[in-house]
Specification:
By secondary structure, the protein is mostly helical. It is built from 20 helices and two strands. The chain has a two-stranded antiparallel sheet with strand order 1-2.
């Protein structure tokens, strides 16, 4: 019986000595043997062994790839992307958009001032750049454009009052009636007239009349302008000009001419974008209040049902794109991620940082039955050995 008790408690003490004492004990400045316990005194080496075992058998590169594949299934990735998109939209919809508007404004400004001009300049070198769109613009807008009565009347009035007012016409007459031009007109009139007009041309000519007209326009400016106004009214120049403008249409031109105009328009537009497109876009960007544009855009996003309904298909498309990318490069990504994660060092640090009492509680909690069996087995063996010794002593007497 005494052997059983000794065996039981000896094994129990031995098991506890694996962990206890937790700290070294010193007497007279010397450390007692077996203090601290076996595991606390070798915790660093234990951490290295645990890390090696886990990384060598459990978290191998192949197993990490399998874990990554399970985590990055299309359904999970889609749900994560949709959650992120929804969270971003929720932040916008909460109305705290001042900082968001500033970010969006900077993005739009950079796009219009930096990226877009370079892109347009490169694309404008292509022969078919915006060919279809410009042809549609020409056919649907310019070719079918025709002034209304009010537009023709307004334009004719503007031409007569601003472009060629009476004073401009008077100055044009003066500039035209030079001595040489008067002589040329007079000689042509004499040579090309016949009948009664020939008699008038050769007897009187037009030199004197044209010279007097020039002198009148130079000496009496106001009277000349009033005369021009009266002639314009009498000849109904404005009505005639309005009729011409109203009937003006590209459809009245020959087909060949229209095609050439369309081609010329397209080529001139491409040339303009190549030479001055960058300056035009940058000037446009400087004249736009991007903060206000960004605010309007965000306001539209908050109330747009299309955006809310698009979250699911957009997240699915992004998830499929990510899946196709991972199918090809997952092995490379995992190989690059393992050194970055440094899982072995993480495991070692966690084991080293765990207090011995917590480590003991965790290990005994896992293998409590097995350890208790060893203790019980020690007690049984102690009883058996004690019985054998007793029998041996009795027989020996």
């Amino acid at each position: 019986m005494l052997g059983g008790v000794i065996g039981y408690f000896t094994n129990d003490i031995a098991i506890k000595m694996l962990f206890r004492p937790y700290k070294a004990i010193y007497i007279a400045g010397r450390q007692l043997p077996f203090t601290p316990g076996l595991i606390p005194s070798n915790q660093a080496r234990l951490a290295q062994r645990v890390a090696n075992a886990i990384m060598g058998s459990l978290l191998t590169p192949d197993e990490l790839q399998n874990i990554a594949r399970r985590l990055l299934k299309t359904e999970r990735v889609q749900a994560a992307i949709q959650w992120l998109l929804g969270l971003a939209l929720e932040q916008i919809q909460q109305g705290n958009e001042q900082r968001t508007a500033a970010v969006v404004a900077n993005i739009l400004r950079d796009l219009v001032e930096g990226s877009l001009p370079r892109l347009v300049k490169v694309l404008a070198r292509r022969e078919d750049f915006l060919e279809r769109q410009l042809n549609q613009l020409f056919d649907k807008v310019l070719l079918e454009f025709q002034m209304s009565v009010a537009q023709a009347d307004q334009l004719s009035k503007w031409v007569l009052e601003v472009v060629i007012p009476p004073d401009t016409l008077r100055q044009g007459i003066v500039d035209f009636l030079t001595d040489r031009n008067i002589q040329t007109v007079d000689e042509g009139f004499r040579e090309k007239t016949s009948g009664t007009y020939w008699v008038v041309a050769n007897l009187f000519g037009v030199r004197n009349a044209l010279t007097r007209l020039r002198t009148h326009c130079l000496d009496d400016r106001e009277a000349s302008n009033a005369l021009i106004v009266e002639l314009t009214r009498s000849l109904q120049v404005r009505s005639r000009l309005k009729e011409v403008l109203q009937n003006l249409s590209l459809q009245n031109l020959p087909v060949v001419t229209v095609r050439q105009l369309r081609k010329t328009l397209r080529e001139n537009f491409r040339t303009y974008l190549q030479t001055r497109g960058e300056d035009m876009l940058q000037g446009l960007s400087s004249s736009v209040d991007w903060e206000k544009v960004a605010g309007l855009l965000l306001s539209r996003l908050r109330s747009s049902e299309v955006v809310n309904s698009s979250l699911e298909p957009v997240s699915l498309e992004l998830a499929l794109i990510l899946e196709r990318y991972l199918e090809k490069d997952l092995e490379i990504i995992v190989a690059q991620a393992i050194p970055i994660l440094n899982l072995e060092q993480v495991i070692m640090d966690r084991v080293k940082a765990t207090p011995p009492e917590d480590l003991e509680a965790a290990i005994q909690g896992i293998v409590k039955t097995e350890l208790q069996g060893i203790v019980n087995l020690g007690g049984v063996l102690g009883v058996l050995i004690g019985l054998l010794q007793t029998i041996f002593l009795v027989v020996a007497k």
